[in-house]
TrEMBL record:
Coiled coil: none annotated. The keyword Signal does not apply. It comes from the Bacteria. This is Uncharacterized protein. The chain crosses the membrane at residues 74-95, 120-139, 151-173, 185-201, 251-268, 280-302, 322-338, 345-363. Keywords: Membrane, Transmembrane, Transmembrane helix. It comes from Lentzea albidocapillata subsp. violacea.
Length: 534
């Protein structure tokens, strides 16, 4: 590797450490939707065969398999570091230049921005893995466009981090279509359909639909006087104000956003002489429009109608996530622009300075903690004992004292063996967005049919009906958790989608991945080589 190449790799590593150094301390980072446990159970829900919509498929199955071999905290640390390092490196390598400084600008622009910060702070690590994969998907797509032998295998392998989640899989498919060209579109679509089948097959077979009330609750928000439009165009605008970095209120930010976008467009014009970047830029515009659709006139009504009647349309909720498509053309366009303007160092420092509160884990937002001993004790009591577990207080999120009162998803489904039922309704801005699990709905009515155990989590907001607990048999009483057996419990009949098509989807995706690995003649790391310059 040439010295200039080493400089780019070292810079990407420094960016990852600057953002995530505290994450490397022992323990688990538990914030909002990001929950890791020592050993995640491998159950039917992880494969999309549970009662609720398969929102964490296939990532739950992959993490469960990985944590059978290595501790969950190591899996988390590697995943988070990979998000920043791989995303930055891929964006840098995508720029067709020998100048390391230009590639560093692309790396900084792609990895050190509001999208990465806000999604990290809200715990959307699987979405960010897909985001980090997009530059590599783009490189693979360009190789397919050029007709390189077996380029499709590179695309399959580049998409693997993205297809861990439904949004990530769609982001990767769009990027591949934009870069591979129309002649290769059918191959790209076929690869995308097969790789994403572990989540879309059970989603289509599931009876449930998302609550359309989530459209307005999860719509993009303004972060400064520029409103939602300039916030989204600056790769921010997430719906949850609690995860927005303080620096996003900078009064100069809307002006700088317009200037940086203008520079990126100028750079894309120059880059179009060397690469077919306009489809990628058009995809970025589409992402921005989708992100802003809920705040445009009539947009809420359109989205609510789709979500109410079309299975899988719940992916359109939290629409700000689709602005990820804008980040890649912005990063490479800006890098080429500053190459012409000879302002590489200045722009890189500016990008870092505009978001200082991504550094050091958001200065306390991402801080590892340890699970209290009660959790391991309850897991041991439930091992090899039949019966599903209902968790109280009824809330999808917790604020435990042992996690410094941070908002976090209930860890019970990923910590305890077997099947765990939690309340999946959400309260957002005073509005309640209904959940999708019929068993959780029955719990809200006090119905414990089909439940073998009740777990009470202490030290978190919410009340528990003492009359309900009085009818149960207490088997564990600790400072953090209490476990009760439900006398005479009769297990529920499985009510998920039929197993056969779901299993077929997993087999098809696994076969495509295995074939790609064989074509690449292991080790698979060679797929990451940068595209030769034209």
């Amino acid at each position: 590797m040439r010295p200039n190449g080493l400089t780019l790799y070292a810079t990407c590593a420094l960016l990852a450490l600057a953002a995530l150094a505290p994450v490397l301390w022992p323990g688990y980072v538990l914030v909002y939707d990001m929950v890791f446990t020592p050993e995640q159970p491998l159950n039917a829900a992880a494969f999309g065969l549970g009662d609720a919509l398969p929102r964490a498929v296939p990532v739950d199955a992959v993490v469960a398999l990985m944590t059978q071999v290595v501790p969950g905290q190591l899996v988390q640390k590697l995943a988070l570091l990979a998000i920043v390092f791989a995303g930055a490196l891929g964006a840098g390598l995508l720029v067709p230049t020998d100048r390391t400084g230009v590639r560093i600008v692309a790396a900084v622009a792609y990895s050190w921005n509001a999208y990465v910060a806000e999604r990290l702070f809200i715990g959307h690590w699987t979405l960010l893995l897909g985001y980090a994969a997009l530059p590599w998907v783009a490189m693979a797509g360009l190789r397919m466009r050029d007709g390189e032998p077996h380029a499709w295998t590179r695309l399959v392998l580049a998409c693997l981090p993205a297809v861990l989640s439904a949004p990530g899989g769609i982001l990767a498919l769009g990027t591949a279509l934009a870069t591979a060209g129309r002649r290769k579109a059918w191959q790209v679509i076929a690869i995308g359909v097969v790789l994403n089948s572990p989540w879309w097959v059970p989603s289509l077979l599931h009876d449930g639909l998302s609550d359309p009330a989530g459209v307005e609750a999860f719509s993009a928000r303004g972060e400064n006087w520029g409103g939602p439009v300039l916030s989204v165009l600056g790769l921010g605008g997430i719906w949850n104000a609690e995860v927005v970095p303080v620096s996003r209120a900078n009064p100069m930010l809307p002006v700088l956003t317009v200037l940086l976008l203008g520079a990126a467009v100028f750079g894309l014009r120059e880059l179009s002489k060397r690469l077919p970047v306009w489809p990628l830029a058009g995809l970025g515009v589409l992402g921005a429009v989708l992100a802003l659709l809920a705040v445009l006139p009539g947009g809420v009504a359109v989205l609510e109608t789709l979500i109410e009647h079309v299975p899988g349309a719940g992916l359109l909720r939290d629409s700000q996530k689709w602005v990820a498509w804008l980040a890649l053309p912005f990063a490479i366009g800006l890098a080429v622009a500053v190459e012409r303007l000879r302002a590489r160092l200045l722009v890189a420092v500016l990008l870092l300075g505009l978001l200082p509160d991504l550094a050091w884990g958001g200065f306390g937002r991402l801080e590892p903690v340890h699970y209290p001993a009660d959790w391991a004790a309850v897991r041991e009591k439930l091992a090899d004992r039949p019966g599903d577990v209902a968790v109280y207080p009824l809330s999808a999120f917790r604020r435990f004292d042992w996690n410094d009162r941070r908002t976090q998803l209930d860890p019970a489904p990923r910590y305890l063996p077997g099947t765990t039922v939690v309340d999946d309704s959400l309260s957002v801005g005073g509005k309640v967005v209904a959940g999708e699990d019929p068993r959780a709905a029955r719990l809200r009515d006090g119905d414990l049919s089909g439940i073998g155990w009740v777990l009470v989590e202490r030290g978190t907001p919410g009340r528990v009906d003492e009359n309900l607990l009085a009818r149960l048999e207490k088997v564990h009483d600790g400072p953090e958790l209490a476990l009760y057996r439900v006398p005479g419990a009769v297990p529920d009949e499985p009510n998920g989608p039929p197993a056969a098509p779901v299993v077929l989807a997993w087999v098809a995706a696994g076969s495509l991945i295995g074939t790609s690995l064989l074509w690449r003649r292991l080790p698979v790391g060679r797929f990451a080589a940068p595209r030769p310059e034209e």
